[in-house]
Amino acid sequence: MDLSQAPESSNVEDRRGMKATGGLVAGGGGLLILIVGLLFGVDVSKLGIGGGRQTGPPPNDKYDVFARKVVGTLEAVWTKEFANKRNGYPVAKYEAPELVLFSGGVNTGCGAADSNVGPFYCPADDTMYLDPTFFQDLEKQLGGSAAEFSQAYVIAHENGHHVQNLLGFNKRVGRGDKQASVRLELQADYLAGVWAHHGQKQFNFIRPGDIEAALKSAEAIGDDRLQRRQGGGRGRVNPGEFTHGTARQRVAAFTAGYKSGDASMGKLTRFFEVGMRDGELDDILFR
Ligand SMILES: [Zn+2]
After folding, report:
1. How far is Cα 180 from Cα 273, in angstroms, rounded to an integer?
2. How confident is residue 44, by pLDDT bands cut at 50, 70 and 90?
3. Which band of pLDDT confidence, cut at 50, 70 and 90, is reported for residue 18?
4. Any idea where the domains of the chain sit in the sequence?
5. S-S: 115 plus which of 12, 29, 131, 246, CB 3.0-4.6 Å?
6. How far is the CA of 120 from the centre of ligand 1 (A)?
């Protein structure tokens, strides 16, 4: 990924190394987790990995600069899409979310969380939360990729939840409604693909191997893959418990968004209209 043409967003806050208050102990398991759904879908503690993460001062790793640039491209792309009348959005102004980088644990408008929940978006405070050490788990433990573009895809997916919030799609998912959750999550992957399509046109940031890296991660965090990993790799695939979509459909959703760049209200609404079978949406969506 080449972000040399990307603008730096001012909506990124680096809280790594800061202690979360309110009795939250970094790295401890079983903490209060009150995030209102919309997680990236990977609770690594359930997979027997993660935990025991280090907190300290922010490493001098320029990660915040990387994050600012990724968010900068997201702001540019979505500002344009919201202003585009042909998309038929109910609002024309894109209000950008914040991105908070943290380590270990963090307090949010949705409650306190620790790193094991993976990256997530909190609609109550319009903020994305990310502990970058997640990507080491994603690559080493889950078989995904920690390449920059794959990380950017994950941030673009969380940003997709913010777009859904602005457009009203997240209201369609009630608590515990797993089928609707799959629709919303696959739509977020699709929105990440839409960002890649338009971001490439504006900033020429994709380099050989980048798309493959993002797809590798999308596949690694498919519900069926994650279910199989539980119980030491002997977990059963149960479509009734899917919340984020299968590996195959997560890849298909990102790819369809990347190819078409179509973020129109009509296209996005289709995610809630097509049929669903065995935990998968009708593939007609991705053609
Ligand atoms: Zn998500």
Report:
1. 10
2. low
3. confident
4. 12-286
5. 131
6. 7
